[in-house]
Design a protein that fits this description.
- The structure is a homodimer.
- By secondary structure, chain A is mostly helical.
- Helices cover about 75% and strands about 0% of the residues of chain A.
- The longest helix of chain A has 18 residues.
Chain lengths: ~80, ~80
């Protein structure tokens, strides 16, 4: 799995899962995760080499297992590849 | 999911998956993943807040999807919690 594709897939999946839960703003997710809104923004844009701890925080704020978030990101990365 | 429990579970899972593949040494896995052996050692001991990029490298060296590695780590963390 290509890291950059996964990083971008992860950002897209986090954004779509956030909307699915009715969390309209990056601020809302950031608050629930205990992270800075600007940081969450850069994660959603696929710009960050997120650490395990912050991945756990984001998955927790979305109420889903991290493994599921990563599985969806892998799928998104595969689809994008073509 | 508790981050520290997951970090420890992940280290244990990486070590057991490495052995399962007949990679006897941390050096062997480090070489395959393009990481420093001492770094792989600290990851296996659950001491590191591993980044997404290094998680991708380790999963790739073990020949398994990252989502599967994380799912196994979640299971190990749950079991440990009792």
């Amino acid at each position: 799995m290509d890291y950059e594709a996964l990083r971008e897939g992860l950002g897209n999946v986090i954004r779509s899962e956030r909307y699915r839960r009715g969390i309209r703003s990056q601020e809302g997710l950031a608050h629930a995760a205990g992270l800075h809104p600007a940081y969450v923004g850069s994660v959603e844009r696929g710009e960050r080499n997120v650490s395990l701890q912050n991945l756990v925080r984001i998955a927790g704020a979305l109420g889903m297992p991290l493994s599921e978030l990563i599985a969806e990101a892998e799928e998104a990365a595969e689809l994008r590849k073509g």
